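Private note to self, pasted from the team thread so I don't lose it. Backbone tokens:
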């Protein structure tokens, strides 16, 4: 395998639609309220992509160092595990991503706020927290991803902070109801992580990587998956019902069969490796869900 191809695999490009869903959802809600800032959309998307890539690289680095990535692992092979990319090279790539995310994040803050304000300091601190969380998921002496806390991280950073934070950067105001669609994206994102952990349950258990799925078992994890997807739909529909006409959002329902199919596959699945494609499918379905929620902006 060429070095370029190895790095492309390590970047895990298929995870990027999920990261963009966060930014697009917050931006669409802001646009509904006539508070759209194109500069915020651009730089928030760039920053989020850098953070997602950082998280992916850190995950490879941490799992390789802990031994979680081994010959028993199901799913795509990791480049450190195969010896194509060294630990030192991966660590260097992580540092580069941290620097790039800081540069783009600071640019985002100046695009969002006309002058230096306390909000800039708050979002800078949140940005540092996001960088730390991306790394600490599997890296360090006590990574929280090995203690069943990954789902909470995904819900908070991909959902609550990601969507609501993007909306705030557009509007410079706060309204609590934005946490409803933010929860939707957080729940769908946790669903993607849950699929990943169901796929890896056996190798994670053997390597003492205690994910939430390892704690609850595959059967309970399947019902948990149903809960995540169903709750995501419910929170979005509640938001629409409270603040708009549900009939304006009929395009959203075009994605419902995709989510239902995903749930059915999880319950029927007998071979862990067959779930790998469902991670991509759910990420793309989430992005499509978000984009269709913005159709009303054009009518």
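Design output:
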């Amino acid at each position: 395998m060429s070095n370029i191809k190895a790095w492309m695999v390590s970047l895990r490009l298929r995870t990027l639609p999920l990261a963009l869903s966060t930014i697009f959802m917050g931006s669409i809600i802001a646009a509904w309220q006539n508070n759209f800032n194109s500069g915020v959309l651009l730089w928030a998307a760039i920053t989020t992509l850098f953070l997602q890539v950082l998280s992916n690289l850190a995950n490879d680095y941490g799992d390789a160092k802990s031994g979680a990535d081994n010959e028993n692992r199901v799913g795509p092979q990791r480049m450190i595990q195969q010896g194509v990319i060294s630990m030192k090279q991966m660590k260097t790539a992580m540092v580069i991503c941290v620097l790039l995310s800081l540069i783009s994040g600071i640019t985002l803050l100046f695009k969002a706020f006309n002058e230096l304000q306390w909000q800039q300091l708050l979002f800078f601190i949140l940005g540092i927290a996001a960088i730390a969380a991306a790394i600490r998921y599997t890296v360090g002496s006590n990574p929280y991803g090995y203690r069943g806390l990954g789902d909470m991280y995904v819900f908070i950073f991909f959902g609550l902070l990601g969507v609501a934070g993007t909306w705030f950067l557009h509007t410079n105001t706060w309204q609590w109801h934005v946490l409803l669609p933010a929860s939707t994206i957080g729940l769908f994102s946790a669903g993607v992580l849950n699929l990943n952990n169901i796929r890896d349950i056996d190798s994670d258990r053997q390597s003492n990587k205690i994910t939430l799925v390892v704690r609850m078992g595959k059967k309970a994890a399947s019902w948990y998956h149903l809960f995540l997807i169903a709750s995501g739909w419910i929170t979005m529909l509640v938001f629409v019902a409270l603040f708009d006409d549900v009939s304006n959002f009929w395009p959203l329902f075009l994605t419902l069969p995709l989510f239902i199919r995903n749930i059915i596959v999880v319950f029927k699945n007998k071979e862990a490796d067959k779930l790998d494609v469902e991670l991509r499918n759910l990420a793309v379905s989430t992005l499509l869900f978000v984009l269709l929620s913005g159709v009303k902006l054009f009518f």
